[in-house]
Write a structure and sequence with these properties.
With about 350 residues, the chain is α/β, with parallel strands linked by helices. It contains nine helices and 14 strands. Strands 5-1-2-7-6-10-11-12-13-14 form a ten-stranded mixed sheet. Helix 4 crosses helix 5 and helix 6 packs antiparallel against helix 7. The longest helix has 22 residues. It is globular, with a radius of gyration of 19 Å.
Length: about 350
């Protein structure tokens, strides 16, 4: 089967009912998002580098990265098969996934996962988190740097949930007219989130019945709410997935490690049996984003394992064929609620 090309359009969302989390009464909650969608236009001859995502403030973006220790040369090494404002495929409604990024990470720095899903016929909508990300660029050249102080983590997660639900409302409007008329299959919507965004994806799936499934990329499980989704979830962890491993990674923060593992065990007991728990050998917390490649030079085999797990889950979800992926990949190991490989637990919830 031929893969689709990848188009991208940037929009700005405004919420009349909420004030900006970081500025209070000063302004309404607004944030840019990217819609990545299948297109019939070719991409090879127009392949660009990562810096092109940050138009019209590319120079400012490059400087932000430089201040964080990532050179322009490193950014330009990553090529992306994305065409700005390409014509969407007409006459087909595609399953759609909303993506909420990790703390400090730009919404589009998940290029490997985004392009893989779009090429397989799934629209991906990525949501910015202004003042949270290292920087946020608006189409009108407005640039918002990361804030000096941040609200409580739970408040930030709740704000992300509100953003995701607002975008679902907007998608219903976009589906009625304009360039994206009919492109969103509103009966096949998933969410994906990394870190804080993963907790938000879980909570959104628990309270919004428009969401049919969720992927958690090393989610901040200590921040998930009391409600449990009644839809399949892929809980994809870094290599340090058990209490002992996670405690070592986060620096002996016993309270957070306990909360994390207790919530993971609760998820394992209560989520639908089609849910999947896996860890990725060789992955750390940033491996799930393009930022991991920029900082650590993430092993390609590890990146492919993540892509295969995510795309297999969503393709199966949208075809109503969810089951544990039969992926012959040494970097993926199925785990139980404790974060250990399955053989650690004699009686499985399934």
């Amino acid at each position: 089967m031929n893969e689709y090309g990848v188009g991208r359009t940037v929009k700005v969302i405004e919420d009349d009912n909420r004030k900006e989390l970081f500025t209070g009464e000063k302004e309404k909650r607004t944030f840019p998002l990217s819609i990545f969608y299948p297109t019939g236009e070719g991409t090879k001859q127009q392949e660009r580098d990562l810096t092109s995502l940050f138009y019209p403030a590319i120079e400012e973006a490059v400087q932000f990265f430089a201040n964080a220790g990532i050179s322009e040369e490193k950014l330009k090494e990553i090529k992306i098969p994305v065409i700005e404002n390409a014509k969407p495929i007409k006459g087909i409604s595609f399953p759609t996934v909303l993506l909420s990024p990790g703390f400090g990470i730009d919404r589009d720095l998940y290029m490997e996962t985004i392009t893989d899903l779009v090429q397989k016929g799934i629209v991906v909508v990525t949501l910015s988190v202004p003042y949270d990300s290292l920087f946020t660029i608006y189409p009108d050249n407005k640039v918002i740097p990361q804030a000096d102080r941040f609200p409580d983590d739970r408040i930030q997660v709740n704000t992300r949930v509100g953003d995701m639900r607002l975008v679902l409302d907007y998608m219903e409007k976009w589906n009625q007219k304009g360039i994206f008329e009919g492109i969103f299959d509103l009966d096949q919507i998933g969410v994906i989130g990394h870190s804080l965004g993963g907790a938000a994806a879980f909570n959104a799936a628990a309270i919004d019945n428009r969401v049919k499934g969720a992927v958690l990329l090393d989610a901040s499980l200590y921040l998930i709410g009391d409600a449990t989704p009644n839809v399949p979830v892929l809980n994809l962890r870094q290599e340090a997935a058990s209490y002992e491993e996670y405690l070592a990674v986060i620096g002996d923060n016993h309270e957070t490690a306990c909360s994390y593992i207790m919530n993971q065990e609760k998820m394992y007991r209560l989520l639908p049996s089609e849910s999947i728990f896996m860890k990725v050998i060789g992955a750390n917390h940033l491996t799930f984003s393009t930022l991991g490649k920029l900082i650590f030079g993430t092993n390609r085999a590890v990146s492919i394992a993540i892509q295969e797990a995510v795309s297999t889950f969503f393709v199966g979800l949208f075809k109503s064929e969810i089951k544990v992926p039969k992926i012959k990949n040494q970097n993926l190991i199925e785990i139980n609620g404790s974060g250990h490989p399955m053989h650690y637990q004699e009686i499985d919830r399934r």
